[in-house]
Design a protein that fits this description.
The complex is a heterodimer.
Chain A: H1 3-18, H2 21-48, H3 54-62, H4 66-72, H5 77-89, H6 96-115, H7 119-123, H8 129-163, H9 173-198, H10 204-211, H11 215-226, H12 234-258, H13 261-267
Chain B: E1 8-17, E2 20-30, E3 35-39, H1 46-54, E4 61-66, H2 71-80, E5 82-85, H3 97-107, H4 112-125, H5 141-152, E6 159-163, H6 171-186, E7 190-195, H7 198-204, E8 207-212, E9 215-220, H8 222-229, E10 233-239, H9 244-253, E11 258-260, E12 266-272, H10 277-286, E13 291-297, H11 301-314
Parallel strand pairs in B: 3-7, 3-8, 5-6, 6-7
Antiparallel strand pairs in B: 1-2, 1-4, 8-9, 10-12, 10-13, 11-12
Classes of the chains: A mainly alpha, B alpha/beta.
Pfam families (chain A): ABC2_membrane_2
Organism (chain A): Thermomicrobium roseum
Transmembrane segments (chain A): 21-45, 81-107, 137-163, 175-198, 210-230, 236-255
Chain lengths: 268, 315
């Protein structure tokens, strides 16, 4: 493995992303929404709804794990609402950020590269297929994970500041599992999906639209939680992370098999 | 170990794409220091040949050897010693020229200690030093092609594969790029130039290989092809303008194909061998025609190409 070549691909793709508005916009807007606006909004919502009758709060609290419930009941009603929303109900949505960042960069770097007719210039260099693949993977996954982790840190600090509640309720163990384990996994999963989609679809926009379907399961989990079907505790969060990592591993292996010079050239 | 055989050796090379035969068993060689033109229409098999030489595609028959190596096995080594300019320059427009060259210097394993100096020298040599910090998106087509050429020289390659390097350029930019290619030739590099520009091939190439529908029609030095294939010269004879019709009659009686050119007093005689020219002039003079001049144009590569094309169309 020639790391100089791998680093060159990562550098090139990240330089290009920094100067591409269609790619950069989701990279800025989504973290602002999910890591800043969401904790601030839910924190303020809790304050305004501070006088909510116990009967309305009860179903939400009842769905919590027993250990967390006892601690939560010691909080003000407004704080309880904020914690339930930030740490449990909307927690899976923060995974949308690394997913969107990874898919946007990967779509630009794979389908976009073909669309701009710049891929062949890379293929005629001595870079090996696995080096090119790794460069493309790192270029998409590293920013996704870094943005996800830094954003989550900001989100936790903001959440604590706005609600006045600290660990282990905010951030909660499932939230921390989703951030620590789930974010890299979902970024790899998104990237793997883009590699597979790019093998069949030509344009950046088409790849972005199709990879957007990956967000559906996360939204589904959120809807299921809101409807009282279940609430993610640390066990469910861990299970979710394992499933995501397994899916990412499988899909990336399949993607790597498709990532051959001749196949890439045929599509280009 | 120094390799002293042909730099490129293609032997009965075949490649299909589905039912379409792209190459139907072509053979040719490129010797060290030689510049060989690969000529043909779009779809003749030029780009496929280059991709096979680089190991980007797998042959379906026959063999390719580059520096004595097999591209499908030793593609990395071959690409390390080869510079390529593709049909499209393939430059990421969001990068500046310097950034782009830095990326490719890393991809070609150019040592970090010499990168800055080599990039600066190439930018200077290709007239891009002053715009090196500008994004490629702001470049003209000619500047982009010069940058693509600079990029392919970053690792000081022994072999250059140039695929239609002037196809999308205006005449001035194309002329500049041709000069840059000629300089590389003077440096002693081996070049395989795929083009459908016959004038370009004639000016730059030591030998040409003419492809049609995946087959080699003919190969040889451009100047010798006409004689080898019996493509005749075109002769323009200048006579007294009022005697043009009489002259045409005389030539017709000798069984020659001739026609009046738009310029007064000028007659174009086709299919005339060079050695027959004195005899024709003597006949005209003998018939009382005032002959003021004779202009003999040896057949160009274009004439050869057209003649070959007509022959294959007739088959």
């Amino acid at each position: 493995m020639h790391w100089q070549r791998v680093r060159a691909i990562v550098r090139k793709d990240l330089l290009a992303v920094r100067r591409s508005r269609p790619v950069l916009v989701p990279l800025i807007v989504l973290p602002l929404v999910f890591f800043l606006a969401m904790p601030v909004g839910f924190g303020l919502l809790g304050r305004f709804l501070g006088e909510v009758p116990d009967s309305e709060l009860e179903p939400l609290i009842r769905a919590l794990p027993a250990a967390d419930r006892a601690q939560l009941e010691r909080l003000e009603p407004g704080q309880q609402i904020a914690v339930v929303l930030i740490s449990y109900q909307f927690a899976p949505l923060i995974l949308l950020v690394p997913l969107a960042v990874a898919t946007a960069i990967a779509a630009d770097s794979l389908a976009g590269e073909r669309e701009r007719r710049t891929l062949e210039a890379l293929l005629v260099t001595p870079i090996r297929d696995e080096e090119l693949f790794l460069g493309k993977v790192l270029a998409a996954v590293l920013p996704a994970v870094v943005i996800g982790w830094l954003g989550s840190l900001v989100s936790a600090v903001v959440g604590i500041a706005v609600t006045g509640v600290g660990p282990p309720l905010l951030p909660s163990p499932p939230w921390m599992l989703l951030v620590g384990l789930g974010m890299p996994g979902i970024a790899l999963l998104g990237l793997g999906a883009v590699v597979l989609i790019s093998a069949r679809v030509r344009g950046f926009q088409e790849v972005m639209q199709l990879s957007g379907l990956l967000a559906m399961p996360l939204i589904g989990v959120m809807v299921a939680q809101a409807s009282g079907l279940f609430l993610i505790d640390w066990r469910l969060a861990l299970l979710g992370c394992v499933v995501v990592w397994a899916a990412a591993f499988g899909i990336l292996r399949a993607g790597r098999r498709l990532f051959q010079r001749e196949a890439l050239l045929r599509l280009g | 170990m120094v390799f002293d055989g042909p730099i490129i050796q293609v032997d009965r090379l075949e490649r299909r794409f589905g039912q379409t035969v792209a190459l139907a068993g072509i053979s040719f060689q490129v010797a060290a220091g030689e510049i060989v033109g690969l000529l043909g229409h779009n779809g003749a098999g030029k780009t496929t040949t280059i991709r096979l030489v680089l190991g980007l595609l797998t042959p379906h028959g026959g063999t390719v050897r580059v520096f004595g190596l097999e591209p499908t096995v030793d593609g990395e080594q071959i690409r390390q010693r080869t510079g390529v300019v593709g049909e499209s320059p393939g430059l990421d427009e969001r990068l500046t020229a310097r950034e782009l060259l830095q990326v490719f210097a890393d991809l070609y394993d150019v040592p970090r200690v010499v990168q800055a100096q080599r990039i600066a020298a190439l930018l200077e040599q290709f007239g891009l030093a002053e715009v090196a910090e500008r994004r490629v998106a702001t470049y003209s087509a000619g500047m982009r092609q010069r940058l693509a050429l600079a990029r392919c020289l970053l690792h000081n390659p022994e072999l250059l594969l140039l695929d239609e390097p002037t196809a999308a350029l205006d005449p001035v930019a194309a002329h500049h790029v041709r000069e840059l290619i000629a300089e590389r030739r003077r440096e002693g590099r081996t070049i395989l130039l795929a083009t459908h520009n016959l004038d370009e091939a004639e000016r730059l190439c030591d030998r040409v290989v003419i492809l049609e529908r995946g087959r080699v029609l003919v190969e040889g030095p451009p100047r010798e092809l006409a004689a080898a294939l019996g493509v005749p010269a075109r002769v323009t004879i200048e006579v007294e303008p009022e005697q043009v019709n009489s002259a045409l009659d005389v030539l017709a009686r000798r069984g020659m194909r001739a026609q009046a050119k738009p310029e007064p007093g000028r007659i174009l005689v086709e299919q005339l061998a060079k050695r027959a020219v004195p005899d024709v002039v003597a006949t005209l003079v003998g018939a009382g025609i005032a002959v003021y001049g004779v202009e003999l144009r040896t057949p160009s590569l274009e004439d050869v190409y057209l003649a070959l094309h007509q022959r294959t169309e007739r088959r």
